[in-house]
Amino acid sequence: MPRCGIVTLAGPPNAGKSTLLNALVGEPLAIVSHKPQTTRVPVRGLLTDAETQIVFVDPAGLMDPAYPLQKGMRRAALEAVHDADVVVHVHPLAEAPAPRLEDLVGRLPAKVLLAYTKADVVPPETRPALAPGELAVSAESGEGIAELLAAIRGALPEGPFLYDADDVGTQPLRFFAAEFVREAVYAALEEELPYAVAVEIDEFREAEDPVYIRAVLAVERDSQKPIVLGKGGRTIRAIGTAARERIAAFLERRVYLDLWVTVWPRWRRDPAVLARLGLPLPPESQR
Questions:
Q1: H or E element, residue 5
Q2: In sequence order, which residues have a C-beta less than 8 Å from that of residue 140 and are 6 or more positions away?
Q3: Confidence at residue 286, expressed as pLDDT on a 0 to 100 scale
Q4: Where are the alpha helices (DSSP H) in 113-212?
């Protein structure tokens, strides 16, 4: 009997969840940045072999939300945890021991595995002793990845595959295109500004060659537009080049990426915009 299930990676911001997801599925699906709270909408990746299909979910890091966008991110993260068949509690090895996951998310209906990440930066002689069943993993060196996958496969429920065996993700291509533009934004802009940028795909014409993608980069204030554009358009060109290369590699197609910068006043606090971006607020936050 085949095994199939939803496996959610849960942990604090900047614990290495997105890097771990990419290592587990063998594809750079989730965007990665040294800045915390990069993930907003949960990213889903698939890993399928002859006997098992794992639907990985990488939501935002668990945090105490300070404003509506973060409240939407936390709601989506909690839903991903509560919908899972298996939860991988992700925590940096250098900050062991991890807190009890129940204290972060409430009830835990799923099986829980504890994976300590970023093991490559902790010398063996300074590593804490781990309890039976706990794993030290590194997405950079590959340490513990095979062992974690074996533990996940053993915890999956029996059931038919949910997706085609050749699929690597469950979300539409335009979702990943928007994410890769956001990744380029985080790389190009410093300090707080990347958190004030939203990305929405206006057009995605896959039938054309090259694929035509029109993306809107929305900031919250008029004063932020020149920063995103850069002197003589230098910054927006750098963002476009990096994002286009990333999207083209993902699609294995030539891509024409058309970027536009606009202002959505206070979009991080606008329930309608957040819902459109896939992060509806909890009902109590909309009153």
A1: strand 3-10
A2: 19, 118, 120
A3: 55
A4: 145-155, 173-188
CA dihedral (195, 196, 199, 200) in degrees, to 10, reads 130
Determine how β-strand 3-10 pairs with β-strand 86-92.
parallel
Topology of domain 3-155 in CATH is: Rossmann fold (3.40.50)
DSSP 138: -
Residue 226 has what pLDDT? 96
> pLDDT tens across 50-95, in order?
999 999 999 999 999 999 999 999 999 999 999 999 999 999 999 9
Local structure of 192: helix, strand or coil: coil
Locate 239 and state its tokens: 């963002």
Range 173-286: architecture per CATH: 2-Layer Sandwich (3.30)
In angstroms, the CA 100 to CA 245 distance is 41
Token duo for residue 47: 């890993």
Residues 6+ apart with CB under 8 A from 142: 23
Q: What is the pTM of this model?
A: 0.94
Whether 31 and 183 have beta carbons less than 8 Å apart is answered as yes
- CA dist., res. 287 & res. 282, Å (int): 10
Decide: 219 and 197 in contact? Cβ < 8 Å. yes
Asked which of 1-5, 20-24, 34-38, 149-153 is least confident by mean pLDDT, the reply is 34-38
Query: Where are the chain's structural domains?
Result: 3-155, 173-286
Beta sheet of 255-263, edge-to-edge order: 198-205, 211-219, 255-263
